[in-house]
């Protein structure tokens, strides 16, 4: 039972650890292969019992020593409860369909987000603001951290088992699929004061210099979050923490969305170069949720 | 030279490590006590030279071996460049003053935010959205991570040296000062669908159950982010990742702000219990910046 590393077993199972994540796993409807308690973790058995004993959940409940548990645990102070879960498999067509409770699909595409903490936080935010699904893709320069890695799973607070995820898709194929399904692609460019009227403004994006973004995209295509019509079927593209989205992806996107930021009154320079990738994504998904909610 | 731990020296200096943070330190106008290069880090000397050689910056530039550098470095693959910086000292009266470029002060008060990554990300977001300053405070239950700890400093991308910070204030004294200075306190309560009209809705906050929040606060005091008038002088109170803000702090706050979140169409239940503390703060500070910008 490999709790470390987050690499699925041959059967596609991943390990989750800690009371809260095991609860989320049991609640998620994902297939559970086993639940494991250490000696000192056995005290959590009572609180999980109602979920474990449900008849449709037939899986072995295993016990081990504290020492053995610590040996396989990924955390420093393990709570002594873990589960092997098979996350539901989704196809890209599943996440592109119109959801029953929203005007149109809203996908989040992680293209090169390398920090598992950022990936997990984005999953949590995407679920909170009702995104239809998340697709992880590699770019030429960098892969995206596995959404099922222990650190991503913890940062997601269980959302990795709740929101539909298509992981490890080739970015080119995904972009073609989105085009064929008339889903607008929105490239994130996060930097300083730059409105649709001033696309030549200063600032760095999630790695993509806004000058590049501006040269790659017409002024009409670079929008502030509140200028975007989030009720359209959309895929929000989030790039690498350092290098941002590849230039050809920004060029090929239907629109760019840019979060304006504060500048120093003395110099007009940005106070900070960019936002954290997960913070920027939270801002954009909040804006999307706000618009979608007000139109319902 | 203690790069680890983030505990200031007797002279109040903290260590920062890596090319980007050292650049930010040199740019910040903070007093530099020394810059240190390892053998392999010496290659960065050229890019920093214009800033190091400025006459007003008189400090020793030290060299050391790679091995010694690795011994004091906090990161796994150090870049071989570090600095000892004395962050500027601010008094709470500094951060409560009206800034020259905004309608009113906007403070962020971290009361029990324990993860240094969250603290750093919040500092970065606060600087990006033009907050006037950040105050860190301990609650009865939990302290706030040091904004100058290496992990917080890295997550802040240097913003810890840019935005005014008052660290380690007693929360009670701070709240009194805010009241005396007519700065409205806004307690963050982040959970599921709950508007000002339905304060009894389900959901968990940054630890504070919204039921508690609702019982503690009148309906009129619990607002969605867009219902808050962010042009008023405000202090946004952010609580512990698990336990949230202490109940008496929520009760004593002038208003509660609550980020609505998506629910499952089948059950009406929240998709996730709460947002990450830094993601929630990003959403609120974005909303504040958007309002302040549009009124300028």
What would you say this structure looks like, in words?
Two copies of one chain form a homodimer. Chain A has two domains: 73 residues, 2-Layer Sandwich (60s Ribosomal Protein L30, Chain: A); 204 residues, Alpha/beta knot, CATH 3.40.1280. Helices cover 30% and strands 19% of the residues of chain A. Chain A has ten helices and eleven strands. In chain A, α5 runs parallel beside α10. The longest helix of chain A is centred in the last third of the chain and has 19 residues. Chain A is globular, with a radius of gyration of 21 Å. Chain A starts with 13 loop residues before the first strand and ends with a helix. At the A-B interface, α5 and α10 of A face α5 and α10 of B.
Q: Which terms would index this structure?
A:
homodimer, 296 residues, alpha/beta, 60s Ribosomal Protein L30, Chain: A, Alpha/beta knot, 7-stranded parallel beta sheet, 4-stranded mixed beta sheet, 10 helices, 19% strand
Structural domain tally of chain A: 2
What distance separates the N and C termini of chain A? 45 Å
The CATH homologous superfamily of the largest domain in chain A is called: SPOUT methyltransferase, trefoil knot domain
Instruction: Characterize the main sheet of chain A.
Output: 7 strands, parallel
What gross morphology of chain A would you assign?
Answer: globular
